[in-house]
Amino acid sequence: MNKTVELVNHWAEFEKKHPEGTIDDFCRYHLAHQQHRVADGPLVGGVVPSFNDGLLMKIIGRISKLNMAYANIALRDTGLNQIEEFGILMTIRKQGNPRKTDVINANLFELSSGTDMLNRMKKRGLIKEYGDQEDKRSKRIELTTLGEQVATECSGRIGKNAKMLMAQLHEEDKALCIQILKDVEIKLSASWQKHRGKEFSDIYDELMVG
Fold first, then answer.
1. Residue 18 domain-assigned?
2. Which InterPro entries does this chain map to (predicted)?
3. How far is the C-alpha of 63 from the C-alpha of 117, rounded, in Å?
4. Which residues are bridge partners to 129 per DSSP?
5. Beta strands 127-131 and 139-143: pairing type?
6. What is the CATH number of the domain that holds 155?
C-alpha cells in the first residue's frame, strides 16, 4: 500500500475515535499503537500494575532509582556523596547566590532534610553561607572555589551517566518523551509545596480538576 494512503487511513481511523483530536494527538496515538520490539526481559520487577497510570509511574520510578544508583557510582571520589548534592550545586551555580529556602524548594526537599544536606556540604567546604542583606531572617549561599571545581567535574560525569542510561533511545524518541511528560513535571512542581499538610483526598480533587 502507498505510504500516503496508509497514513490517511490511519488518520481516518483516529479521527473517527477522537473527532476533537489534533495532529499532535494523532502522532502520539500512532506511535503508541505501533508494534513494539519485544523486550529482552521483564518490564518491571515485582507486581506489574494493571492500569496504564500505575504502570507508567512504576516505570518512571524504577528508572529514577536506577539513575540514582548509577549516578552515585559516577560520583565516587568527587567530594559528593549522592546525586541530590549535585542537584544542589548546579542550582546554586545557576542562581549565583540564592536563598537557602529557594535551593531547597527547587530540589524538592523538605525544609529539614534540605537544611541538613546544605549544612553537611558547608562543612565539607563546598558552599558558604551568609546573611541576606534584604531579609535578616534569610540566609544566602554560594559555591566556594572547591564547590565550583567539584561542580565542573561532576557535570561531565553526570552527563555521561545520562547518555549511558538513555543510549538505546533515538533522539526523536527522547524529544517525544520530554514533550509528553514536561507538562506533568511543570504542574506538579508548581503545586507540591502548597499541598504539604493537606489531606490526600483534597489534593486529588484539586489536581484532577486542573
1. no
2. HTH_MarR-typ (IPR000835), WH-like_DNA-bd_sf (IPR036388), WH_DNA-bd_sf (IPR036390)
3. 24
4. 141
5. antiparallel
6. 1.10.10.10
Whether 160 is in a domain gets the answer: yes
The answer to whether position 33 is within a domain reads no
Q: Is 140 helix (H, G, I), strand (E, B) or coil?
A: strand
pTM for this prediction = 0.77
For residue 182, being part of any structural domain is answered with no
Rounded Cα–Cα distance for residues 86 and 98 (Å): 16
- C-alpha cell recorded at residue 140: 544566602
By mean pLDDT, which of 30-34, 124-128, 141-145, 179-183 is the weakest?
A: 30-34
Give residue-wise pLDDT tens across range 145-191.
999 999 999 999 999 999 999 999 988 888 888 988 999 999 999 99
DSSP state of 142: E
What's the CA gap between 88 and 80, in Å, rounded?
11
36: phi then psi, degrees, rounded to nearest 5: -85, 155
Cell of 111: 525544609
Spatial CA neighbour of 67 closest among 163, 153, 154: 163
Contact by Cβ (8 Å): 195, 104: no
The structural domain count of the chain equals 1
